[in-house]
Specification:
Blueprint lengths: L2 H16 L9 H12 L8 H11 L14 H17 L1
Amino acid sequence: MPTKVIERVVLVADAVRRSPEVGSGLSVRATDEACTYLAHPRFGGGTDDQIRDVLRTSFCLRFDGDADDVTTDAGAVWTIVEQQLRVATE
C-alpha cells in the first residue's frame, strides 16, 4: 500500500483521537483494520472514495449513533474524517 495512504489514515485517526467532540477514543486496532482493508488487492492502493468508505466503516461504526447525525459520536467522527481527508488532498 502506498505510504501516502497510510499517512492519510493515521492523520485522520490522530485527529479523531484528539477531538474533544468525541466521547471515547479510537483504538489503534481501528487504524490497523483500515490499513489492512486498504492494502487488500480489491482496493488497488486506495482511491479517495475507497479511503472514505473504509474509514466510515472502520472508524464510525465503533461509536454510538449514526454517521449522518452530527449530534452523535459517530456523526462527530464522520465530520472529522471528512474534514481531515479534505485537508490531506489540498
